[in-house]
Amino acid sequence: MGRKVNPIGFRLKVNKTWDGRWYAEGEEYVDQLHQDFTIRSMIREMAPRAGVSRIEIERFPGNVKIFVHTAKPGVLIGRKGESVKVIRREIETLVGKKIDLQIKEIKDPDLDAYLVAENIADQLVRRISYRRAMRRALQQTMRSGAEGAKIEVAGRLGGCRGRLRQRMLVLRQAPA
Asked: How far apart are the C-alpha atoms of 112 and 130, rounded to whole Å?
């Protein structure tokens, strides 16, 4: 059996922070962890076209702070903020505490690995050639200022039906 460590574990506290910042013990920990998973999936389902990359959750005794990093904040907010109100109401009923929902815009979505991977996966679902989709994504990423990128696409490609597994990693960005 291999003993592989999640790459995020290597990066924590060096160049990446935790997505969930809170402390609990015992059953409370389990409940809050499952709530975090549900909150993240709920936000992604309610705004599939908003380009949500990261969802950070901070818990305090009386309230919960949620930071949503998105490429298209206008799509997530909706007209006059009605989509945000619906999302906030749904999460408050789930958690049972006051929710502070903050939306942060991603300045350059072509440098965000998750969003580039979602873009490639979306193109593959629409039956675009996987070589073309990967080449375009790589060109856009490099044009946006990345020094290098590595794209891995796996599964039954080339017109075959079946499962598709793909990963994207932006390696280095040009200095600002």
From this structure: 20
Give the global pTM: 0.81
Cα 134 to chain centroid, rounded: 19
Residue found by looking up tokens 């856009």 in the block: 140
Nearest 10 degrees: CA dihedral of 88, 112, 119, 167? -110
How distant is the alpha carbon of residue 1 from its chain centre? 29
Domains of the chain: 7-105 (3.30.300.20), 109-173 (no CATH)
- Work out the angle at residue 58's Cα, subtended by the Cα atoms of residues 14 and 96, and round it to the nearest 5 degrees: 160
Percent of the chain with pLDDT strictly greater than 70: 88
CA proximity to 75, closest of 44, 54, 96:
44
pLDDT in tens, 51-96: 999 999 999 998 999 999 999 999 999 899 899 999 999 999 999 9
**Beta-carbon contacts of residue 57 (< 8 Å; ≥ 6 apart):** 19, 20, 21, 22, 36, 39, 40, 64, 65, 66, 67
**Cβ 149 vs Cβ 139: under 8 Å:** no
Helix (H) or strand (E) holding 100: strand 98-105
